Amino acid sequence: KTWQGELSSRKKDGEPIWINLTVAPIKNSQNRTTNLMAVIEDISTRRKLEDQLRHSQKLEGIGQIAGGVAHDFNNILTAIIGYSSLAYQSMREDDPLRTHINNILEYSEKASTITKSLLTFSRKQATRLILLNLNDLVSNFQKFLLRVVPEHIEIRTTCTDQMLSVMVDQVQIEQILMNLATNARDAMPNGGRFDIATRLMDLNEEFIKTHGYGTTGRYAELSVTDTGCGMDQKIQEKIFEPFFTTKEQGKGTGLGLSIVYGIVKTHNGFITVYSELDKGTQFRILLPLARTGEVQEEELTE
Ligand code: ADP
Ligand code: MG
After folding, report:
1. Measuring CA to CA, which residue among 297, 300, 301, 299 is closest to residue 130?
2. Which of 6, 97, 191, 256 is buried most deeply by CB count within 10 Å?
3. Count of other CB atoms within 10 angstroms of residue 198
4. Whole-Å CA distances, 216 to 79, 202, 209, 281
5. Tens digits of per-residue pLDDT, 259-294?
């Protein structure tokens, strides 16, 4: 009989490969099998795309759940904040319990910030797109960076001379930079270098074939590199999931990169990570360049 199946194998040079193997008997006039015919097809690219699809569907699912929970949670917080405010206002100014109520209000606001981040991740918040030069955004962001990144980390920004017109939500792109910078800082407790760079990228068929992702077109690339602790393959596979963190309790929320991922997807962009243990990490974000003649401002609600 004919046999067909998918197998993982290795090429002569040792590189892993997925193959689709079909073996069929060739029979003579007496119906006896005299030969076997094998057809081997390289399906590595398809398997890679399938893996990526599964991964992004998983993230999509988690995002929807997280968004739903965040929505309900936010309603509860609104009630807590409302009642605390009422209690606060009806207390005498010298009431010793006022500080307690004030603390409740402060912590509730913090919780509210987290739920809002989650809503951004699950794309339940309105996105306000404007046309801007990514280089300007990156240069203007420097002053915020200095607030997050301590002195013993050297910051370097390299922007391309080419204009990078993109239709983006400025606040959200700044949030991306902020989240990546915070992670880089955490990865370099003993100092190091933090690089931000922009360049123009042309995604052609060749690129898509070798990298296994993308859609043809012109993109603005934003790359963020640190010389920190890096991470192994296992961790890299999980970093974009909400609540995934390797940081001790109270330090990390595990939301930073999931929000970055959500924002990049809202902008029809791509994000990839390259990391080596004890060497450092690089995130590359591709945002599609605005087509000429695109409207100046646009309200997008998803
Ligand atoms: P959090 O920072 O709250 O842990 P993130 O979503 O921002 O959540 O990051 C998830 C995890 O990814 C981190 O806990 C860390 O293990 C890993 N990570 C992210 N950025 C870096 C980086 N630049 N270098 C090393 N590890 C990183
Ligand atoms: Mg983080």
Report:
1. 297
2. 256
3. 23
4. 48, 8, 11, 26
5. 899 889 889 999 999 999 999 999 999 999 998 654
Predicted TM-score (pTM) of the model is: 0.69
- Angle made by CA atoms 265, 270, 275, in degrees to the nearest 5: 120
Dihedral sign for Cα 99, 100, 103, 105, please.
Answer: negative
Task: Supply the residue whose CA is at minimum distance from atom 7 of ligand 1.
Answer: 256
pLDDT tens track for 109-145: 889 888 877 777 666 566 789 999 999 999 999 888 8
Residue 106's alpha-carbon distances to 118, 175, 263, in angstroms, are: 19, 22, 27
CA separation for the pair 143, 225 (Å, rounded): 18
Token pair listed for 117: 């981040």
184 lines ligand 1 (CB under 6 A): yes
Cα torsion angle, 118, 124, 128, 132, sign: positive
From CA 98, how far away is CA 86, in angstroms rounded?
11
